[in-house]
Design a protein that fits this description.
The complex is a heterodimer of chains A (about 600) and B (about 210). Chain A contains 17 helices and two strands. By secondary structure, chain A is mainly α. Chain A has one domain: Cytochrome c oxidase-like, subunit I domain (Cytochrome C Oxidase, Chain A). Classes of the chains: A mainly alpha (about 600), B mainly alpha (about 210). At the A-B interface, helix 1, helix 6, helix 7, helix 8 and helix 9 of A face helix 1 and helix 4 of B.
């Protein structure tokens, strides 16, 4: 054992093996984080261009015409370009930011550290997962630069638009790149998920039973199972779609389609089939995004409230319930696509059922905050912000999940408002909370707290200013993915609201620059962390140095004696008791 | 089983350390976990779950499209009957190989493994020949919805079998280096599980295609 451990703790590698082609889970996690942040900058910039068009439709801009001559022909944004912005923004954010940053970034960094292991179960596979992810990022990014343009099908790539290469400028090469990138991303996700499940199940340290796991670990385990069950179905759909595009098959192309006055020689499939397969993946996918956010926010909230998480067991059970239900609700994306009304009622029922475990979690967060002496650090603020955003976005989900209301609201800005709040901004808040919280563990330095708070308040106010008025736009009838709302007389009166949203969006975007500066400057110039456990948290990663060396822990792996939420225990001298403190060894007053 | 040596020391066989069969032997050894199943086995089952979901997705597409008016059944190539027999036989020989190593009969095991790999290759060749049969009958990928599914399902299954043959190749290299013992042959166990699974998957796909 000694020689074995020594091999883990002291073995020096060159720069390339240590920081680039590393199999160390911490480096891979940071690689995922930084790559996903780069994709977020691209995806965010695209959304700024969208808000520019929606705020001031078809504004003549010689400057943008010079920078992007094809997209701004005649110095006005082309409609095809706008739709490709929608597609690329959605794809980049859902897959390459949220899925990657929460499971790839935090999952890799935190799993071995929080369960007291030296690395993942299959470190090489883990590194391979990152490199395949990087290739998929490059492929999707390159779709922005092909001459025929980026894909136009939205992040959902509905058939037959996506199945016929000649159906639009970006639907040829652009769409091929989209499918390739998503297939690579699925493969990378499978390698990651395989590692997460195996590692959490088999490599927990002595004493760390499943019911002593931090909620972050529970959420990552459940997320990995969801990904394992959902992504292969997307891959199956992608395979059929590819054969429709290049093999002449007709799985998703109905018979009798006429394009450019010429009938296509497809023999007749079922376009709705794509929607079913996509949403069978797509709905679990939104939980793949939100569950790790829930887990991380729970742990961080508890740490800064100095109170145990309210009802740990119900937190775990509700996550399990959400993940099971997530597979039987996909039809609520398709209420108006053509569905038996009885089936619509069934999907309404299952969808509303998911509100129950979600509400359990919400009340448990409120119970955690209730009466707490909250430490308002940047990480703590963002975890509270997560709860706020999740509640605001979740409530509008009740309207959309009910088929009677959804038939009115379907494909309007009400939907845009809902999913941005609940599955974009809320996970973003949790990711920020996680970054501020674990940054000292990652780099051995703190991020600047003042800048962090400026970042929080501008992001919090900005996100509400951007997404809350969208509900009003949607009820007023503004369609999702619309290029120019002023073309419709009944939407013109809402244009001032669009201008307000656009200005707010630019402020929100600028606030993220504060974060980026803070993040990258702090890596080199942040205040140094002088102790292992600067936040006085209980979980195992805080017993390791900041940053932990290769192998994470010293000669001996830590041993666990208690759950991770012993904050503010009556009679104890300190308001936190780390998981490694034996039951009898708690210092008393 | 403990063995008493001449100088009165008792040698107990080493605790079952999984060989690096399914994994990559990375630096993550000293885990205290009492979890009863090895990480390689869990990894394999996770992989198989993903494969189940891939084919479940394709199955649901198959069932949905069977309901559209343009669905047309094709005459399945006759060769897939003997191919099925070959694949079932390869599962049997691989199982016999696994039983041989349990009794530490390395030579017997090597012969069975070689035969299994050969049968695997024969199955792939047979499937390709079945494709040729279809082409000769004028049935191509886009001919009907069912022909499209036939090529895609057999093709994907064939790719998975090819992966199994490669894995079996690694096990055979390991066997040739005398790294498999009666106590320690996890890589062969994992490979056999995967192979039986692919066998069952083929029977399932066969029945699915047959019962249209």
């Amino acid at each position: 054992m000694d020689a074995h451990t020594a091999e883990h703790t002291h073995h020096e590698l060159g720069f390339w093996r240590k920081y680039v082609f590393s199999t160390d889970h911490k480096i891979i996690g940071i690689q995922y984080l930084v790559t996903a942040m780069a994709m977020a900058v691209v995806g965010g910039t695209l959304s700024m261009l969208m808000r520019y068009q929606l705020g001031w439709p078809s504004l003549v801009s010689p400057t943008l015409g010079k920078i992007l001559p094809i997209a701004f022909q005649g110095n006005i944004m082309a409609p095809e370009f706008y739709i490709s912005l929608v597609t690329m923004h959605g794809t980049l954010m859902v897959f390459f930011l949220f899925t990657a940053v929460l499971t790839g970034g935090f999952g890799n960094f935190l799993i071995p550290l929080q369960i007291g292991a030296r690395d993942m179960a299959f470190p090489f596979l883990n590194a391979l997962s990152y490199w395949v992810f990087l290739v998929s990022c490059i492929v999707i990014f390159s779709a922005l630069f092909v001459t025929s343009g980026a894909p136009l099908g939205g992040w959902t790539a509905y058939a037959p638009l996506s199945a016929i290469p000649g159906s639009g400028p970006g639907q040829d090469t652009g769409m091929t790149l989209w499918i390739t990138a998503i297939a690579l991303f699925s493969a990378s996700g499978l390698m990651g998920g395989l590692n997460y499940i195996t590692t959490i199940l088999t490599m927990r340290t002595r004493g760390l039973s499943m019911m002593r796991l931090p909620l972050t670990q529970w959420s990552l385990l459940i997320t990995a199972v969801l990904g394992l069950l959902a992504f292969p179905v997307l891959l199956a759909a992608g395979i059929l779609l590819t054969f429709d595009r290049i093999g002449g098959t007709s799985f998703f192309v109905p018979a009798g389609i006429i394009m450019n006055q010429m009938p296509l020689d497809h023999s007749g499939g079922h376009p709705l089939l794509w929607q079913h397969l996509f949403w069978f993946f797509g709905h679990p996918e939104v939980y793949i995004v939100i569950l790790p956010a829930m887990g991380m926010a729970s742990d961080i909230l508890s740490t800064f409230c100095r109170k145990p998480i309210f009802s740990y067991r119900m937190m775990v059970y509700s996550m399990v319930a959400i993940s099971v239900l997530s597979f039987v609700v996909w039809g609520h994306h398709m209420f108006v696509s053509g569905m038996n009304p009885f089936l619509g009622s069934v999907f309404t029922l299952t969808t509303l059922l998911i509100a129950v475990p979600s509400a359990v979690k919400t009340f448990n967060w409120l119970g955690t905050v209730w009466g707490a002496r909250i430490r308002f650090t940047s990480a703590g603020l963002f975890s509270i912000g997560f709860v706020s955003m999740f509640v605001s976005g979740g409530l509008s989900g009740l309207f959309l999940g009910t088929s009677a209301a959804d038939i009115q609201l379907q494909d309007t800005y009400f939907v845009v408002a809902h999913f941005h709040q609940v599955m974009a901004v809320a996970p973003l808040f949790a990711a920020f909370a996680g970054l501020y919280f674990w940054f000292p563990k990652m780099f051995g330095r703190f991020m600047n707290e003042t800048l962090g708070k400026i970042h929080f308040w501008f992001t919090f106010a900005g996100a509400y200013c951007v997404f809350f008025p969208m509900h009003i736009l949607g009820v007023g009838g503004q369609m999702r993915r619309i290029y120019d709302p002023t073309q419709y007389a009944f939407l013109q009166q809402q244009q001032p609201l669009n201008v307000f949203i656009s200005v707010s969006a630019f402020v929100l975007g600028a606030a993220q620059l504060v974060f980026l500066v803070n993040f990258f400057v702090s890596i080199y110039a942040g205040r140094r962390v002088l102790e292992n456990n600067p936040w006085h948290a209980n979980t195992l990663e805080w017993t390791a140095p900041c940053p932990p060396g290769h192998g994470n822990f010293g000669e001996e792996l830590p041993e666990v004696y208690r759950w991770p939420f012993d904050y503010g225990v009556p009679g104890a001298a300190e308001d936190f008791i780390p998981q490694t403190t034996p039951i009898g060894a708690v210092a008393k007053h | 089983m403990p063995v008493l040596t001449e100088d009165k020391r008792i040698i107990i066989p080493p605790p079952r350390r999984p060989d690096d069969g399914g994994g990559d032997g990375g630096g993550s050894g000293d885990s205290y976990s009492s979890f009863p199943i090895s990480k390689e086995q869990i990894g394999l089952w996770v992989l198989l779950t993903a494969i189940i979901m891939l084919f479940a997705g394709l199955t649901s597409a198959y069932i949905v499209l069977r309901g559209v008016p343009t669905w047309q059944n094709i005459q399945l190539p006759s060769l897939i009957w003997p191919n099925t027999f070959v694949l079932l036989l390869s599962s049997l020989t691989l199982e016999l190989g696994k039983r041989a190593i349990r009794k530490n009969r390395i030579g017997t095991m090597n012969r069975w493994l070689g035969l299994s790999a050969l049968l695997g290759v024969l199955f792939i060749a047979g499937q390709l020949a079945a494709w040729r049969q279809l082409v000769h009958a004028g049935v191509y990928l886009p001919s009907t919805l069912q022909s499209g599914f036939f090529y895609i399902l057999t093709g994907l299954h064939g790719l998975h079998i090819t992966g199994g043959i490669i894995a079996l190749g690694f096990v055979m290299v390991k066997a040739a280096q005398n790294r498999l013992t009666a106590f320690n042959h996890q890589s062969l166990k994992l490979c056999t599980t995967y192979w039986h699974f692919m066998d069952g998957l083929w029977v399932y796909l066969f029945v699915l295609l047959l019962l249209s």
